[in-house]
Amino acid sequence: MRGILSATVVRPVGLSMKFVDRQLNDVCRTGIGGHAYRCKRKVLFQRDWTIFMRLHGLLLTTATIVIAGSIASPALAQDAATAEDATPVANAPGGSARTFDPAYFAQFAPRNALDMVTRIPGFIITGGNDQGQRGLGQATQNVVVNGERLSSKSDSVADQLRRIPASDVVRIELVDGNTLDIPGLTGVVANVVYESDAASGQFRWTTGFRPHNTAAELFGGEISVTGKTGKLNYTVALSNPNNRFGADGPITITDGAGELIETQYSVFSGKSDEPKLATTLAYDFGGGVQANLNLNYAEDFYYRREPEIGIPVVGPIRTRQVRTHEDGPQYEIGGDIQFPLGPGTLKLIGLENYERDNFTQTLVDRFDDGSAATGVRFDQTNGYGERIGRAEYSWKLWQADWQLSGEAAFNRLDRSSALFDLAPDGEFVSLPFPGGTGGVREDRYETSLSFSRAVSPTLSVQAIGTMEFSKIEQTGAMPNSRSFKRPKGSLAATWKPTSDFDVSLTVARRVSQLSFGDFLASVSLNNDNENGGNNELVPYQSWNVELEANKTFGPWGSLKLEARQAWFEDFIDFFPLPDGGEARGNIGDARRLHLEANATLKMDPIGWKGARFDIVAVKRYMYVDDPFTGITRGFSYDQEGALQIDFRHDIPSTDWAWGATVEHFDNAPYARRYEEGREWEGPFFDAFFIEHKDVFGLTVRAQAVNTLLGARNYFRRTVYDGPRPDGEVSFHEFADRRIGPIFRLTISGDF
Predict the structure, then answer these.
(1) Which end of the chain is more exposed for a tag (fewer CB within 10 A), N or C?
(2) Which helix (H) or strand (E) element contains residue 441?
(3) CA distance between the termini of the chain
């Protein structure tokens, strides 16, 4: 698409556009308060382990400290035992579980199970069926409810936990995932045990205000009712996760020698709303027969506008208006039934979901010398559908849990795209864009056999072997059909020598799932970029080695260390097309090391009752050969590192709490055929809150974000007049935009 825009200089859209998110597989986050931009894309957050030899000294030193602590901590715990110490569960298989009863969470006045899980020292919710993967496959989340995996794909783990009233929670157990008879779960898993009796409801209303560029958030929150009638458990929830975002500031355009070409001032603002109705029904027929039904319907609304003024050194002043709009419905119907059969239990699962996106982006440039306006419009309609059938047969043999499963998943994308140019008479005229219209179908089948057993009171193992068969068919301008047969699986072991220390090791072979949008062409108007379609994409595969160590220090808190190494084959990033364009394609081998530390430090032992620090630090090392230059670099748009420090103080003998957060994220640059760049926010965000847990029976929380450290929205890129690395620099671009403070008020209660 390069050159289709008549303006000399173009403007970045970045991560704020859902359209670009889907095309580029951007890693998106909303941060503490949503910050400047909004990302809807759901990305599987893979965490892997690469250059172990280079970092072995650090890892060995840390492991030595943890192991030493595991030996010394029992005496420490005995000296300062409190109600916060976990007690063993008598029937916990493979060793004792750490159990947190409702009394442990009383100081936090939780409203729901999510409030409780997030207060467990050193525990962070990860995974879930909403991470962008197709099908259900093996379990990925580290939270289960009543020993069962959460099966909804349209609701996150957090969404589902939020609808369980705290009053219904009997206890929360931290258990070894290998012992849960749920293939795929390894490491420490939180099992939320709850029982519902009478009907109860809860609500949460969230509002937000920003002094700059955005309208107020007025309609965010959720209301839900949970109860039991006879043998029927039910939950009905109405929610609207809304967001308002924006930023403003200068942008400078310079040539290869650093001389100024144009000064610009950009303002962008936007909003998103996703009203959703979700219903969950569970019925106990007795005799071990249980059935569940999930029904969800939502409407998605997204709008962004970006006015801009450009003042060139030479030439007329330019004003640009970019408008992006997207809407569409989505639904999910899913259910399962479980019943005894022979020596074991058979579980049948069915699910269907569908989402339609109606996307429009319009860009118009006008000039103060009276010359004709120029512009482009891009329209796209996407229909995403998925239909899943899965059967799981579980039984016990030789003191082990076995499961034989089979799954069929049928996925589809139907896309219609149209590109228009603004004619001198002010009307948009259609341009040829055949590569943007077509369809993609994938039929995927897999069968797997899993085995898990507690080998000894301190050691458990899990083994999974899976064979995946798939067929991908593409229609449109580049029709193609291909079939794949890929083995995958994992071997995991957990060693728990004491109740306060455990180590898990997992070795896995994994097969990725392709983004259907990469098969078809797309454009980014404000970047003047086109992604060509690629009908030869193949799923990348990886070998993974993952190590996790958990250590609790009694009343002092806990420490969790993770190291995850992945070796990728047929890795996907931007690659050159023969016609001079670029697309998402397989570019060869790659590797990534993910290191993470998660610590909770409690201040009670030193006399500061009710105070705690939660710290998460992440560092990633990534290596892939750039297909344009041959130089080794990181993964486009991935995350290189992160640091988040949370402080909370629940003031004893009062209903007051206060706290603060500091966070920092490093986003990796991206590399395309004609440009390279990076978008990020920071360097640091701050947040402060004050909370009262009983204002006429309600919890009221006020929060101020980005009031002290002044984090901003940044974007830089270098654009070349020919393919890298031989092309000469056409221009450098740097945006430095103000986000400003963000103020939020949340009121929650029960009824």
Answers:
(1) C
(2) strand 438-456
(3) 56
User: In the beta sheet, which residues pair with residue 387?
Assistant: 352, 410
**Average pLDDT of the residues of the chain:** 85
- Region 647-667: what's the mean pLDDT? 95
Instruction: Report which DSSP code applies to 74.
Output: H
> Exposed, middle or buried, 728 (CB in 10 Å: 0-12/13-18/19+)?
exposed
**180/178 Cα distance (integer angstroms):** 6
The stretch 287-298 carries a mean pLDDT of 93
Count each helix (H run) and each strand (E run) in the chain, helices first. 4, 38
Cβ(613)–Cβ(647) below 8 Å: yes
Beta strand ranges found along 556-638 (DSSP E):
557-569, 572-576, 582-586, 590-602, 611-625, 632-633
Q: How many degrees, rounded to 5, is the angle at CA 540 between CA 414 and CA 437?
A: 20
Structure tokens at 399: 């003191």
Answer for the pair 462, 454: CB distance below 8 angstroms, yes or no.
no
Count the neighbouring beta carbons within 10 Å of the beta carbon of residue 144. Answer: 22
- CA dist 67 and 342 (Å) reads 45
366-399 per-position pLDDT tens digit = 999 989 999 999 999 999 999 999 999 999 998 8
Give yes or no for a contact between 538 and 511, defined as CB atoms under 8 angstroms apart: no
In this structure, are residues 543 and 567 in contact, taking their beta carbons and an 8 Å threshold?
yes
171-180 pLDDT, tens per residue? Answer: 998 888 777 7
Residue 46 has pLDDT above 70, yes or no: no
What is the pTM for the complete model shown? 0.83
The whole-angstrom distance between residue 420's C-alpha and the CA centroid of its chain comes to: 34
Angle at the Cα of 397 from the Cα atoms of 393 and 402, rounded to 5 degrees: 35
Look at residue 1 and tell me whether its pLDDT is greater than 60: no
pLDDT 10s digits, 149-165? 877 777 888 888 888 88
Q: Long-range CB contacts (< 8 A, 24+ apart) of 312-315?
A: 312/8, 312/9, 312/261, 312/262, 313/260, 313/261, 313/262, 315/8
Q: How confident is the model at residue 517 (pLDDT cuts 50, 70, 90)?
A: confident
Looking at the chain, the whole-number percentage of residues with pLDDT higher than 90 is 65
Q: Which domains does the chain have, with CATH numbers?
A: 14-750 (2.40.170.20)
Cis peptide preceding 316, ω within 30 of 0: no
CA distance 16 to 524: 12
Lowest mean pLDDT: which of 48-52, 199-203, 468-472, 594-598? 48-52
Whole-number pLDDT of residue 20: 29
Token pair for 495: 């060693």
DSSP 453-475: EEEETTEEEEEEEEEEEEEEEEE
Let me know if 87 is exposed, middle or buried by CB neighbors in 10 A (0-12, 13-18, 19+). Answer: middle
Instruction: Calculate the alpha carbon distances from 245 to 17, 274, 275, 703 in Å.
Output: 12, 15, 18, 16
| Cβ atoms < 10 Å from Cβ of 507 | 13
Please name which of 70, 122, 69 lies closest in space to residue 100, comparing C-alpha atoms: 122
CB atoms within 10 A of CB 263: 15
**Cis, bond preceding 683 (omega within 30 deg of 0):** yes
Residue of 682, 741, 744, 745 lying closest to 211 (CA atoms): 741
